[in-house]
Amino acid sequence: EAGVAQSPRYKIIEKRQSVAFWCNPISGHATLYWYQQILGQGPKLLIQFQNNGVVDDSQLPKDRFSAERLKGVDSTLKIQPAKLEDSAVYLCASSPSGGRGNEQFFGPGTRLTVL
Amino acid sequence: KNEVEQSPQNLTAQEGEFITINCSYSVGISALHWLQQHPGGGIVSLFMLSSGKKKHGRLIATINIQEKHSSLHITASHPRDSAVYICAARDQFYFGTGTSLTVIP
User: Fold this and answer.
1) What distance in Å separates residue B26's CA from the closest CA in chain A?
2) CB-based contact, A87 to chain B, within 8 Å
3) What residues contact B11, with CB distance under 8 A and at least 6 apart?
4) Of the partner residues A100, A108, A111, the one whose CB lies closest to the CB of residue B31
5) CB contact under 8 A, B31 and A101
6) Is A100 near chain B, with CB under 8 Å?
7) Distance CA A11, CA A87 (A)
8) Which residue has the higher pLDDT, B39 or B15?
9) Burial of B2 by CB count in 10 Å (0-12 exposed, 13-18 middle, 19+ buried)?
């Protein structure tokens, strides 16, 4: 079974530029998560999708971050414009459903460096 | 104060040693997740548990719901166990900052 795919794996941009990350979850997984992991810290949930609907985006900085999952399968996370403090690994995860008993499967992450 | 606290933050062990990583949480949860993160960022799920104990190979995870505490044990540690181990309170997605483990041959 293929795992969660993310691209690109690495991205370097200058502040105030825009960037987009892509995630393809495990086939059939209804729930998709985006996390931000700053160096030395644990992951922080940015947004949770159930199919193509948003379940939780309370920690998403909506003035600059946006995410969509239009067809309920793959998802994109965008930052516009980027700030220095956005330098982090952006992790995508999926699970069969959003139920609390369900395990999450993580992608390899996209390492973003903002100069 | 973080909702999920791990200790120690860094741990160096000799190959073959028994290792314990601790996780305490202050929020109510229905499950706690142990994750392993290798250099390069990839995260692998090790355990998700809501009570008692789970074992997988040389890894053992325990949880005490009343005391809001969980431990991850590694028996007969090996250099390939070197990674960051993260505990997460599943419901609210609170993550610990991780324990960086280095096992020396």
Assistant:
1) 16
2) no
3) B19, B21, B99, B100, B101, B102
4) A100
5) yes
6) yes
7) 10
8) B15
9) middle
Residue A109 in contact with partner chain B when CB distance is under 8 A? yes
* Alpha carbon separation from A2 to A59, A106, B19, B63, B67 (Å, rounded): 29, 12, 32, 31, 38
**What's the pLDDT score for residue B3?**
86
Q: Do the chains contact at B43 and A100, CB–CB below 8 Å?
A: no
Query: Among B41, B42, B97, whose Cβ lies nearest the Cβ of A42?
Result: B97
How much is the pLDDT for A100? 56
Residue listed under structure tokens 């900052």: B97
d(CA B69, CA B27): 11
**3-class SS of residue A85:** helix
Query: Can you tell me the distance from the alpha carbon of B60 to that of B87, in angstroms, rounded to the nearest whole number?
Result: 13
B10-31 per-position pLDDT tens digit? 999 999 999 999 999 988 787 8
Is B30 in Cβ contact with A44 (below 8 Å)?
Answer: no
Name the phi and psi angles at B80, rounded to 5: -70, -10
Helix (H, G, I), strand (E, B) or coil at A67: strand
Residue A63, both tokens: 């003035």
CB-closest option in B30, B40, B98 to A42 = B98
Nearest Cα to Cα of residue A92 among A19, A14, A25: A25
HSE (CB half, 13 Å, CA atoms) of B73?
12
The answer to whether A42 contacts B48, with C-beta atoms less than 8 Å apart, is: no
Helix (H, G, I), strand (E, B) or coil at B13: strand
